[in-house]
Amino acid sequence: MPHITMLLGLVLLLAGVVSGIQLPFIGKPISPQPIRPDEVKYATGFTLRHIFHHGTEEYPKVHLRKDIGPSYRMASGRQSFQVSSQVKTVTRMAERDPDFIESYLHYARTKGAVAIEFDWTHEDIMVPNITDRDTLVEFAKVTADAYVEDPTEGDWIDVGLPLNETGGFGWDANGLRGHVFADETNSTVLIAIKGTSAALFHSDGNTVSNDKINDNLLFSCCCARISYLWSTVCDCYEKSYTCSQSCLEDALYSEDRYYRATLDMYRNVTSLYPYANIWVTGHSLGGAMSALLARTYGLAAIAFESPGEQLAAQRLHLPFPPIPLNESAIWHIGNTADPIFMGVCNGPTSVCWLGGYAMETQCHAGLECIYDTVNDKRWHISISNHRIRPIIDMILSYNTTPSCIAPVNCQDCYDWNFV
């Protein structure tokens, strides 16, 4: 149905223009160097090229980029790293231009929107080799590096809309942060999205309050309304165990929230690297955002210890290809001693509840690769087993990587009514 998709594209593009969707960011495209197929089946070297900061809350239009020189060393002391990759057939939308995607997302939330049948394509792409332990370790180290605050000297480049605000933003402000790596041929780009900063997780920082708002919006049943004593993060609660579905969808997609910021970051990266294969990764909240971005555009993603993001993906009307979930290229790496990853960090006696985090979801919209640290290592279920540093040591302590399987019959918030 190519003609239907073309017509739909025109309709959605017009809808996007009306709704104020941004045009691609300005930047000089970086072309990949010619490579032979056999050169990318093993390992590729990555270096940090850019650091992004996308404002949220009171500065949703702030989008800054800092370009990194070749002499930069990551927090681990390395200038570059190697990962193993392999070919995988993925099913994703044939039309993936950001204008089309964002116009569809806007249309899907409008009242009276009808279901859309997309044209899907099967493509052989390079993906991370998750059966290689050292590759998982490298990805985990990259997600740890994403927590490092501004590690370089130099100027930020404004890559968003013109700003009138002065001060109070940049690396020291609330917002979404991302490190962008590219291999030596510019054929593969890796986006690492920072996770939650919180004393609760032993990772304090300037984004604490904003991270918490987004955690409570993404991973609660209804705006973190779990007790009359709690302050909600949106106004969608109607009455006992009843929540407005359309209100939730609008709140998740709001311009001052992390999902919209993630879309803008992806748009900017693809403007710089229009011909590259994009991978995404992250830890905790960053892992969930990487999984949502991968679901949106049909990318490969490795998410470490992320909360269940399936409910958020459904509320955002993200495209799910008509294939079994076990063919997904989104991998959730976790361990049985992490209450957040396992979806059990809730209830009045939990650390999350006491810290003000309504972590009510447990379903992942991708494959789960679970290390059974409770039985294998005799670890106790603890919030300390959610942190990325122990996860790196955990992966190294195993000789093999776990099998990755699709969740079965998982349902979040079954006792709520969404109207």
Helix content: 25-40%
pLDDT under 50 segments (min length 5)? 1-7, 9-27, 34-40, 161-172
C-alpha Rg (nearest Å): 20 Å
* Strand residue content: 15-25%
The number of helical elements comes to: 12
User: Describe the biggest sheet?
Assistant: 12 strands, mixed
Euclidean distance between termini CA atoms? 33 Å
Tell me, briefly, the overall form: globular
**Domain count:** 1
The secondary-structure element order is HEEEHEHEEEHEEHHEHEHEHHEHHEE
Query: Which structural category do the helix and sheet elements fall into?
Result: alpha/beta
The residue-averaged pLDDT reads 83
SS elements, strand count: 15
Question: What attributes characterize this protein structure?
Answer:
alpha/beta, three-stranded mixed sheet, 15 strands, 419 residues, disordered N terminus
Summarize the topology.
Layout lengths: L1 H18 L23 E13 L7 E5 L13 E13 L4 H11 L11 E9 L4 H13 L11 E2 L16 E9 L4 E6 L14 H11 L18 E3 L2 E2 L1 H9 L4 H15 L4 E7 L1 H13 L2 E5 L5 H6 L14 E6 L3 H4 L8 H5 L11 E5 L1 H4 L11 H10 L6 E2 L11 E2 L1
Parallel strand pairs: 7-10, 9-15, 10-11, 11-12, 12-13
Antiparallel strand pairs: 1-2, 1-3, 1-6, 2-5, 3-4, 6-7, 8-9, 13-14
Helix pairs in contact: 1-2, 3-12, 6-7
